[in-house]
Design a protein that fits this description.
alpha+beta, 22% helix
Amino acid sequence: MRLVTIELQTVLGRHVRLGALWRDGVLDLNFACAWHLQGAGEPAWRSLANLLCPPDLRAFLEVGERAWSLVRESLHRLDAFEVLPDGPDGSRLLHPLGEVRLLAPLPNPQSLRDFYAFEEHVRTGFSKRGEPIPPAWYELPVYYKGNHRTIIGPEAPLPWPRYTRQLDFELELVAVIGREGRNIGVSEAPQYIAGYTLMNDVSARDIQRKEMACRLGPAKGKDFATVLGPALVTPDELPQLDDLPAWIRVNGELWSESNAGNPYWNFAQMIAHVSMDETLYPGDVIASGTVGRGCGLELDRWIAPGDVVELEVAGLGVLRNPVGQPVTAPPPPLRPSVEAEAPALNGMT
């Protein structure tokens, strides 16, 4: 199943709904479940559909297995129809893709933890400053906490903050947590993953470089925007996690070709590490960190306002965004002499 969050413009205004990519369109899951319950003779079909299959992905994940079971039952019944019936009260069950706007599949994650899992990316970052990878990197998966309130989706312009001259993209994978858990073992961890999606960890490299020169951060270098999408792909649709060809295109030109299936630290290890004496919740985002050759800094190529960035991974689709214009002209450095003397840390995560 490929879950999406869509925005609809109706005569009653803007509506945001949870859907699934199905039959070349988007199936409204809440309405589909309501239709199924009504047809099964459930007297409280409307309230039960809202309870078990709410039109919000995080709320849906919080319901748990009962939500998934109801959706599977509804899809099974709908599969029998060549031409779909109307939903309850004449509602529309299936929307053509061209008539909806795809948002981030999880617009409101519970939290965002971003790891540093791909050895090629880490090695390139340290080699740019003439250093080896620290031994500690091989001892435990490290991460920082990003801003889970600045999530944007496919086709949304990448914001260019007023304080940066050097905007960058970063191709990452994401696992979304689907069950609450604590002290989860590596072997058990895959059972806690609701699905996978792509992430563009948008970075202001010049600001990030200054932050990390102080051995803290990143913060303002990344907290202004993170892109998720286009869909949350359930694990049964992505069985081969160890071979995920990946491509990066800017304005249609291929900038990089790599593989997103070869991290040093995998998602099961990340989840086990985070959950040690700490509870994970449905809707938590676990990000892999940048894949090898997955950002402009590694490639020594830089995006500019008006460019179009496409990040693609086999099985997960294409995450496409135009690059926005700077809010205003960026200010001059506060202390040029200090900036000039700062170590060239490159700010890679």
